[in-house]
Amino acid sequence: MNKQKKGVLVVVSGPSGVGKGTIVKTLVKRREDIVESVSCTTRAPREGEVHGKAYYFLTRTEFEQRIAENDFLEYDEHFGNLYGTPKSFVQKTLEEKSVILEIDVVGALNAKKAFEKCVLVMIAPPSLAELKRRLQGRGTETDEEIEKRLSRIEYELSQKDKYDYTIVNDDLEQAIKELEDIIDRHKNTL
Predict the structure, then answer these.
(1) Predicted confidence (pLDDT) at residue 190 exceeds the cutoff of 70
(2) What pLDDT sits at residue 5?
(3) Interstrand relation of 119-124 and 165-168 (parallel, antiparallel or unpaired)
């Protein structure tokens, strides 16, 4: 008899400012049976980020060694830094709980190739104007950085047909409920 996984792997993507982090973090706080995967990165920690919580901060050499050991479900390079999802963490955690990966479109599609049973969920904005307003409202990026992010949005949203589900984040509580329902539906089909 095969040992059945108790959780489902859900990959959440969407443009910057769409609220995916808020949705994921809120759901993880509410449900003990759902955890967010911690990615590895070669970028330096930002103020307040803790190793093993925000990311596993690795040197480029350490990261490349783990690539050679096939220890990433997916990985990619952005703005000169490597980011990846540790395969060992995901596999071990799925034995007990569901795992959410909050990663970009490229990473999501690579994760689907590596782990066919993962469920892809795109978080979309109600409109591009609302998304731009949210990005500006965060106050964490320069206008130039916001424009760079906005230029990537069209590509990201053009990939939503490759996802299993799209949730429009027009109402935060409704979006959280939709993600929760997707996880429960897939967990019950294992």
Answers:
(1) no
(2) 57
(3) parallel
